[in-house]
Amino acid sequence: xxxxxxxxxxxxxxxxxxxxxxxxxxxxxxxxxxxxxxxxxxxxxxxxxxxxxxxxxxxxxxxxxxxxxxxxxxxxxxxxxxxxxxxxxxxxxxxxxxxxxxxxxxxxxxxxxxxxxxxxxxxxxxxxxxxxxxxxxxxxxxxxxxxxxxxxxxxxxxxxxxxxxxxxxxxxxxxxxxxxxxxxxxxxxxxxxxxxxxxxxxxxxxxxxxxxxxxxxxxxxxxxxxxxxxxxxxxxxxxxxxxxxxxxxxxxxxxxxxxxxxxxxxxxxxxxxxxxxxxxxxxxxxxxxxxxxxxxxxxxxxxxxxxxxxxxxxxxxxxxxxxxxxxxxxxxxxxxxxxxxxxxxxxxxxxxxxxxxxxxxxxxxxxxxxxxxxxxxxxxxxxxxxxxxxxxxxxxxxxxxxxxxxxxxxxxx
Length: 413
Description:
Layout: E1 2-3, H1 21-25, H2 28-37, E2 40-42, E3 50-52, H3 55-62, E4 68-69, H4 92-100, H5 106-110, H6 113-125, E5 132-134, H7 135-140, H8 142-152, H9 159-170, H10 182-213, H11 219-225, E6 227-228, E7 231-232, H12 235-249, H13 252-265, H14 268-276, H15 281-291, E8 297-302, E9 306-308, E10 311-313, E11 318-322, H16 323-326, H17 361-378, E12 382-383, E13 403-406, H18 408-412
Parallel strand pairs: 1-9, 3-11
Antiparallel strand pairs: 2-3, 4-8, 5-13, 6-7, 8-11, 9-10, 12-13
Helix pairs in contact: 6-8, 6-17, 9-10, 10-11, 10-12, 13-17, 15-17
């Protein structure tokens, strides 16, 4: 049995759902008690898994894939095979990261900054003197999603279809009232994901054939024609990378922007600080990723018995690593509930940790920085209407709708 080396403390609890809608609305107030009292939580059936919430514990889990697998079995989301490289464990994982990491290295993503800045301003132009906007629909969705389609070389008119597939996979929005018990609800959600997955595979199979006939200057064409260990990628490998790109490229930056702007809109001193000194924005991106970590948690599967804080997790147990709880842990971050745009050091794990750390983190940082810079330059005054009751989706914390009063309407509110 693998033994975690910190002294055991706390006991399992039986009633904590980290993906509850109320927790998504105001996560920070829920996490401190869990970290302090039950650092390893055992959730009740039918969603039985172990929840790890302390910063040091979460990093330890994520840095030991030999004990905590990131296999497709850990997160089935409608795919036929493991998503590359996310659901491939070391050592096989390394060859795919060597192939893909250069595409998303800081120097590689820096070349798209001017295009990203132009796109953000084009989207702001569409506000056209409005007093109110839905930030989610009118900004945080189109910015990263339009850029993603451009990078992949896919038609912009297909965006709505991609967003539908993404939501069916990540949120599987089935109505609980239509089902008699939780097991039937789970089956229905899985069926929705699988149907969306089949459509994604069919779409990219056709797009791949087009790239084989005519090479273009985009990521999809690169994947079709590049070589790995002296051979081109198989069709299945390309499809498995593309499936992951959809899930990662169409949701997390949108959710991050929602969380950041919702925070700033309700804290005018922080908003004004960025307006007055745009040089704070790179630090603000990091600090808001820490405090508003959009991906609440990520799941791993134990490969053997593991003991953590006196709790034994049996083989093939699901383990949820609460990134958001870890990022507000006072054991790592002094004054964790204070948002400090100049926090140093800031070792947040909003992008995960270990070998599976987010492939697109540098691209995400660029998109977030450019979006905040241009939005605050063009829309320095904004606030959430007093009557608005913001709600965030569980798991990946997007806010839809996210109403904002802007300009004079914000000043007068």
